[in-house]
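step: validate -> pass
step: tokenize input -> pass
step: predict -> running
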Amino acid sequence: MNFKAVIFDLDGTLLDSLKDLANTLNSVLDNNGLPVHNIEEFRYLVGYGMDDLVRRALPKNLQSRHELLEKLRQEMQEHYAKTWKTHTIPYPGIEELLDWLDTALIKKGVLSNKPDRFTKLCVETLLSSWKFDQVTGHHPGIKHKPDPQGALLMADMMGIVPENILYVGDSEVDMQTATAAGMYPLGALWGFRTEQELVESGAKKLVEKPQEIIEWLSKNKA
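step: predict -> pass
step: emit ->
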């Protein structure tokens, strides 16, 4: 295997953002007299995009109420713009991994279902010490993962064929995206989801910490 680029998921892979996402949406729900969720429940609510996060957080009988959904989505975006970095930080070992990728001249990309403006804001603010070749969140014209459209566009922009790209993520959405795009799916066990979910959704390799990616890629480059 000769990987020339790594595409990362953002939330649950590069950044531990669960608490800010949960606190922000719980605040919006509570302000509207709706049930809130504990932090563990949010591990399974996030991952499909902010609009879907709001919908999935509602009781089932309210999930098709379009006016309510639009109101809550707007409030979520407004609140998150103020609260997104209260607790959000890179996971331990991520900085060392990004340093190593730079030294190894391996290109880097970030592909997230988070809205594009927040994706770019997170990377530019919390990961500003590293140059990413491509950073893309969800925006009109790009389908949500696990559709491979965004990953394939990113590969094309970087000028690297999919089979030479390592895709690192923490959820079934990421593993399915990598598989559909013809990239190598690597599951990050430090993220939001379980080992079982990653394996069942197509992960070819699992790692418990970023350092293991450095060791593995070093052996493959040797």
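step: describe -> The first helix runs from residue 18 to 31.
step: cleanup -> pass
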